[in-house]
Amino acid sequence: MLNIKKRHAELVKLLGTYSRQYYIFDDPSVTDAEYDALYNELLALEKEHPELCSENSPSQKVGAKVSKEFKKVEHTEKMLSLENAYNEDDIAAFIERTKKLCGIDNIELVLEPKFDGLSAAIVYKNGILVQASTRGDGAIGEDITANIMTLNNVPKKIANTSERFEVRGEVVMLKADFQKLNEERKKRGEKLFANPRNAAAGSLRQLDANITKERNLTFFAYAIYSDDMSLSTQMDVLNTLKTLGFVVSSRIKLCKNQSEAYNFYREMEKNRASLEYDIDGVVYKTNDLSLQKKMGVSAKFPRHSIAYKFPAQKAQTKVLDIVVQVGRTGNITPVAELMPVTVGGVVVSRATLHNKDDLQKRDIRVGDTVVLQRAGDVIPQILYPVVEERSADSQPFEFPTVCPCCGSRLVKEEKEVAIKCINLNCHAQLVERLIHFASKPAFNIDGLGEQNIRFLFDNEIIKSPTDLFYLEQKNRDIHLENNDGWGRQSVDNLFRSINNSRIISLDRFIYALGIPQIGKAVSKLIAKFFGTYKSFFECVEKLNGQVLLGINGIGKSIVDDFNNFFANETNMSVVRELAGDGNLQGVVRVTDVEKLEGDILAGKTIVFTGSLINFSRDEAKETAEKYGAKVSSSVSSKTSLVVVGENAGSKLKQAQQLGISTISEEEFLNLIRSA
What we know:
It is a single chain. This protein has a five-stranded mixed sheet. Strands 14-13-12-15-16 form a five-stranded antiparallel sheet. The chain is globular and about 90 Å long. The protein has six domains: 2-61, Helix hairpin bin (Helix Hairpins); 73-309, 2-Layer Sandwich (D-amino Acid Aminotransferase, Chain A, domain 1); 314-419, CATH 2.40.50.140; 427-501, 5' to 3' exonuclease, C-terminal subdomain (DNA polymerase, domain 1, Orthogonal Bundle), CATH 1.10.150.20; 505-591, 5' to 3' exonuclease, C-terminal subdomain (DNA polymerase, domain 1, Orthogonal Bundle); 605-673, 3-Layer(aba) Sandwich (Rossmann fold), CATH 3.40.50.10190. Helix 12 crosses helix 13 (450-458) and helix 17 (506-512) packs across helix 18. It is of the alpha+beta class.
């Protein structure tokens, strides 16, 4: 029983954290499927051990407490969430329960899309909009009246003149508006929204309503609360809302039985990728309003409705096109351009097809309907085409024989899977190398993302990494600030970032060069081996990469790529121009590898989890390694210590289960200060 209590307490804490991240901060850290799995585990425990259930349990709560930044609004009638169904057995049980509660044999159901947005309640008095609020914890929401007033699709005045007339619905961001918003944020170098739901919630819950006004949000209405209305069915409610000028989904179905409802559910699942907004399931509602009232509510859910969720992590969509991309090492990768679809909480519009052999083996074609998933909940992956839906005139994709960028003949080297462009002056490769060079793990130049690099390259302002360090000097003649998307402030920030990057550690310098097979981890090994830039340069100048074979984790294949890279005189010229030849100075200074500050963490394997206040995750890793530790991304029996930040999740739980020592970030700081 002790372990059950402990697990229940862990679930309560975890679900509480995830709810706050989702409802308050609009920044979920787990997918809906992961949350649902934990929530269902909690329900199972409380069903078997009712004494564990208390008013603090997530099973008894709706949403999360309101943010302190907003004025509180008390709901006249609670805004409840919906119980979830995951299969036809759950739906059958819901229908039988409904029949039993109502004492009748046949139940009409209204099926509506389950919007993936933010619930809102809008109150009218004598026909005038006077208040709007979020759901909050169900009883108390946040006052978002000023924000709702900026939505063009919300009537500010309606024909109904009841003393109090409340409309409830969902605020969403349409897919087209979401893409446009992210494109604008990308141009400005701002963080992109992960999906339309986050974008809608983040836009609606702004303290400055002018920000909300700039973003296109849509309010879909689906419920009315008023004592003066003589409505008898949910269909009457929806029709009345349309008459009053509210936006109501056109994808609604009145069903006589479970079979009809299931057919509509499957149709919605199949077509969800083509909808203009994101949905994660279908809501089943009892059509008769008198029956809805008779059935009442539980502590958390109305008994008259249920949300039939779509299977997690997979979706169907269309292949709009297949393009081939040229990587920085010349590899040619086919990529499917997809009709945007949300998979696991993220909008996916592209998916790699890996290589020519894989594409031809799976026979994926333009125009195909495909089943998509996010591999490891991260990488978009096409599982297979739905061949029975393929058009009669469909043709297999013809892989190009020449580079789509420079026109050079493509080659397939012996024992290699990849097809490559071997022209080192191919513009596509040059651009990709520049993007890699400026990236965060390399020179970390803020304001120099893909779009700005392409602009500079296409306009022949930069051609090699060295050119970046003369950009401020060049700007006296070219005046970047006069071009669209730049501006004086962003240009000044860029120059400041470039100048800050002129001092770089040896491992980051090696990584920035973009040597095939040499990522961050191998770059650290090589830097540690040489210790100084001078020793490193002397080795590459002599093409003496064989000395690296003594390093654990570096084999002949990596050494061959290392030597081949520096055998190219263009690459050696870039290295000399950047950092000199060990005697002459370049445009950047490469620092020596720091010796260990002490052995206080020597031999220990450390894992960081949660949000850290004093470090970025990379800084924390570098600090621990400086004091002799090995840093791992996962907890195992070999882990010595787990450093716990705010909102720590599964790694903390694993550490506790394995009996591994845990310390706070502050304790970690005190530990290294004492070294």
